[in-house]
Design brief:
- It is a single chain.
- The protein is of the alpha/beta class.
- The protein contains ten helices and nine strands.
- The strands form two sheets. The protein has a seven-stranded mixed beta sheet, with helices on both faces.
Length: 280
C-alpha cells in the first residue's frame, strides 16, 4: 500500500498522477491558465506555464495527501509535522474565549486540517457538502479525523461551540455565487469573498486567527503557522474586513504559489457584476 512508503516516495507517485491530470484534464488546465493570467499578468507566459505544471504536480500530491489524511496513523504523521503559533490559541483559550480559525484552499489542506486538529483540537469544522450524497457520506466519515464536521446549513452548531469557548475552523476563500459576499481585489482581480466568517466572529465574540499551510521545500513535511488573532475584527465595514482576509490569502499564495488551488474557478461568479472569464 502506498502509505507504507516513505513520504518522498508517496509524493513522487502524486507528482506522476498530477502530470497525468495535466495531460488529460482540459478543463482544470484551462481554469488554471486563466487564473494565473489574471493574477500574474506581469509574469511571462513561459513563467506562468512553468507555474501551471508545478501546480498540477502539487494537485497530484494532494491526492496522496488526502489518502494520508484519511488512513495514515498519527505516529506516522507526527515526525513530518511542524506547527508554529500554538501559543496564540492557548492564550485566547485561557481568557475563556472561543476561537475561529480561518484557512485557505491549498493543495495540502486536507492533510493540513488533520495535522492542525492533532495540534490544537477543533470542536467544529465547517464544510460544504458534496453534491453526491454517497461520496459526501464517505468523505465526511473519514474527514471526522480532522475534527467534528459541521455542514454549512447547520452552522448554528459551530456558533454554539464558539460561544461556549470552543474552537471552529472555516475555509475563507470560496464564495462563488454566494449572495452574502463582497468583491475585493485578489492580486488586483476582483474576487468574491464570503462574509460568513465575519458574521460568525461578530455573533460569538471569538478571536479570529488565520492559519497558513504549506508543504515544506523538498517535500520533507508540512509547516502550519497559526497567526496572532486579528485585532479589531470584525469591524462595521465588511468590505474592509474582507480586504484584510484576502491579504492573508495572498500571503498563503506567496509562501508557495504552486500549492494554491488554482484549478478552482474562483472568478466564475462575482455577484453578477462581472462575467466569467472561463470557457467552461
Amino acid at each position: 500500500m502506498v502509505l507504507w512508503l516513505p513520504l518522498s516516495a508517496q509524493l513522487a507517485i502524486g507528482r506522476f498522477l498530477g502530470r497525468i491530470l495535466y495531460l488529460a484534464g482540459r478543463k482544470p488546465r484551462h481554469i488554471t491558465e486563466v487564473n494565473l493570467e489574471l493574477c500574474f499578468p506581469q509574469r511571462s507566459a513561459a513563467d506562468r506555464r512553468r507555474l501551471m505544471r508545478e501546480h498540477f504536480d502539487a494537485l497530484g500530491m494532494g491526492v496522496i495527501e488526502c489518502a494520508m489524511c484519511w488512513w495514515a496513523r498519527d505516529e506516522d504523521l507526527a515526525p513530518i509535522t511542524r506547527v508554529d503559533g500554538v501559543e496564540h490559541i492557548e492564550r485566547v483559550r485561557a481568557e475563556g474565549r472561543g476561537v475561529l480559525i480561518l484557512s485557505c484552499h491549498a493543495t495540502c489542506s486536507e492533510l493540513g486540517l488533520r495535522l492542525l486538529h492533532k495540534a490544537v483540537g477543533f470542536d467544529a469544522v465547517v464544510y460544504k457538502p458534496l453534491k453526491n450524497p454517497v461520496l459526501d457520506f464517505i468523505s465526511t466519515r473519514y474527514r471526522n479525523k480532522c475534527g467534528p464536521m459541521v455542514a454549512r446549513k447547520d452552522i448554528r452548531e459551530a456558533i454554539r461551540a464558539m460561544t461556549d469557548g470552543g474552537t471552529c475552523l472555516c475555509v475563507m476563500d470560496h464564495a462563488e455565487g454566494s449572495r452574502k459576499s463582497v468583491l475585493v481585489p485578489f492580486f488586483g482581480e476582483p474576487k468574491a469573498m464570503p462574509t460568513g466568517p465575519l458574521r460568525m466572529a461578530a455573533m460569538t465574540g471569538a478571536a479570529t486567527m488565520p492559519v497558513l499551510m504549506v508543504r515544506e521545500p523538498g517535500n520533507t513535511g508540512y509547516h502550519l503557522t497559526l497567526l496572532p488573532p486579528l485585532g479589531d475584527f470584525p469591524s462595521t465595514d465588511s468590505e474592509a474586513d474582507a480586504l484584510r482576509l484576502i491579504r492573508v490569502v495572498e500571503d498563503q499564495v506567496e509562501l508557495a504559489p504552486e500549492q494554491y488551488s488554482w484549478a478552482h474557478p474562483r472568478f466564475r461568479k462575482r455577484r453578477g457584476v462581472l462575467a466569467s472569464p472561463y470557457r467552461f
